[in-house]
Amino acid sequence: MFSVPDIMVVSVLALLLFGPDQLPKVMRQAGRVMREVQNTSHSFIAEMERAADVSDARTSESKMPPPMPPSPSEIHPPADEPKS
Prior knowledge:
This protein is mainly α. It has a domain at 20-57. It is built from two helices and no strands. The chain has helices at 4-63, 72-75.
């Protein structure tokens, strides 16, 4: 990532570029933008996971074998045979 000297150089450059009055406003706006990007990415990931779960459920349902048809004895039970 960044080392401490790198962060200090960027901080000094930002202070010189924006000045002490504007720097807090710029950083606050940058924080809002980062929060919005994070919220959007979380909602995107949640939507993709939900879509994958729905797709998995459909796939597992389609892989289930069809129900077995009833046997002929279940459709037409044998008639009682008369006793002789």
